[in-house]
Write a structure and sequence with these properties.
Its main location: nucleus. It is found in: Nucleus. Keywords: Nucleus, Repeat. One of its GO terms (biological process) is replication fork processing. This protein is an alpha/beta fold. It folds into two domains: 134 residues, Alpha-Beta Horseshoe (Leucine-rich repeat, LRR (right-handed beta-alpha superhelix)); 187 residues, Leucine-rich repeat, LRR (right-handed beta-alpha superhelix), CATH 3.80.10. It is built from twelve helices and 13 strands. The protein has a 13-stranded mixed β-sheet with strand order 1-2-3-4-5-6-7-8-9-10-11-13-12, covered by helices on one side. Strand 1, helix 3 and strand 2 form a beta-alpha-beta unit.
């Protein structure tokens, strides 16, 4: 027998003079606590009927609507159902066409509903939507009503004027452990403001990389932020500082604090062109738990790779390493590292070799 949600979805679709989506009907039949419609490119017309009846899924824990070309009007319909989804923990709205208008609708859900809404929601992914700077005030309200542990704001059209308003509203990120604000047009000051709202003693994953207006000194701001942790440790596991104009000296200073991050396994320092071989050595010597290191675009590192001895490579736990550089000019260094990787990992070694790129990994 079809579930109530399936029956209502079919009825709602027909009331909109729209044939029910067979693909959606099959997915809804299997829904229990998780509903993923990710990357189906369904569009508003097919998603809208679902948004109207999803309030029947009272046990829903996870809802993934990523990659469906959803616009503000469709999201407004979804907002009418959100107050009933009291068990929802994870909401993924990434890769759609949502603007600040959608966040205004969500804000109204919180401010106009007399009872608590989405009290269990801890993961919110808004990445790759054209939210723009105007969304900041709405995000301020939303984060005050939620106890988020994960907030993804990557590529949401934030720019350097994000905090230009005299009525700037702070975000409540006290509980956040996974934060991503990469791929925005933000500068050092804007990134530093976001850091001021985060507690380093809570952060497990931090992506500040690939923001186009970043200049020298951002890594220094990260170090200063880490100093505010007090006497607590750092639970950091993943750190992305790609394209942050990092220097060797800044990395050396950063490593003073990363040495206490005993769970750190992934560091992305790609496209920091001034980094040299000592940064590679010190990262791996100071952070023995690191298994994934991305140094693509740090072409100066390959110039002195030969100084990294077999004893050095035997002492690290790397499972993946990305390097780039002029490997025609430094062919001997390339050959040395490739042979070392294969020797250490025997039959488990995998090496992708392109003209100016090396990807070392292990067979799964």
């Amino acid at each position: 027998r079809p579930s109530v949600c399936v029956v209502l979805f079919a009825h709602r679709s027909r009331s909109l003079i729209l044939a029910p989506s067979d693909e959606l009907m099959k997915i809804l039949e299997t829904v229990s606590i998780s509903l993923s419609l990710a990357n189906l490119n369904l569009g508003d017309r097919k998603i809208s009927p679902l948004c109207r009846v999803i309030n029947r899924q009272l046990n829903l824990h996870s809802l993934n609507l990523s990659g469906n070309f959803i616009h503000d009007d469709c999201f407004q319909v979804l907002c009418t159902s959100l107050p009933t989804l009291e068990n929802l923990c994870d909401l993924n709205l990434s890769l759609n066409q949502l603007t600040c208008v959608s966040l205004r609708y969500l804000t109204e859900v919180f401010t106009q509903t007399p009872t608590p809404v989405l009290a269990n929601l801890t993961k919110l992914d808004l990445s790759h939507n054209p939210l723009g700077n105007e969304s900041l005030n709405f995000l301020s309200v939303i984060t005050r009503h939620l106890k988020l542990k994960t907030l993804n704001l990557a590529d949401v059209d934030f720019t350097g004027g994000l905090f230009a308003s005299e009525q700037q509203a702070d975000l409540n990120l006290d509980s956040v452990s996974n934060f991503d604000v990469g791929y925005n047009r933000l500068g050092n000051d804007e990134i530093a403001t976001f850091l001021s709202w985060l507690k380093p003693q809570n952060i497990e994953s931090l992506n500040l990389g690939d923001c186009s207006e970043i200049g020298e000194g951002l890594v220094k701001s990260v170090v200063e932020w880490m100093q505010t942790r007090g006497n607590t440790g750092l639970p950091l596991k993943v750190l992305n500082l790609s394209r942050t104009c990092a220097t060797d000296n800044e990395i050396f200073e950063l490593l003073r604090y990363l040495t206490i991050a005993s769970q750190l396994f992934s560091i992305n320092l790609s496209y920091n062109a001034s980094l040299t071989t000592p940064s590679l050595r010190r990262v791996l010597e100071s952070c023995p738990t690191v298994t994934h290191l991305n140094l693509t675009g740090c072409d100066n590192i390959v110039k002195n790779l030969e100084c990294c001895t077999e004893e050095f490579w035997n002492g690290v736990r790397l499972r993946e390493l990305k390097l780039s550089g002029d490997f025609e000019k430094y062919a001997r260094a390339k050959e040395t590292v490739v042979n070392m990787w294969k020797s250490i990992h025997n039959g488990g070694a995998r090496v992708l070799q392109l003209r100016n790129f090396l990807h070392f990994s292990l067979v799964k």
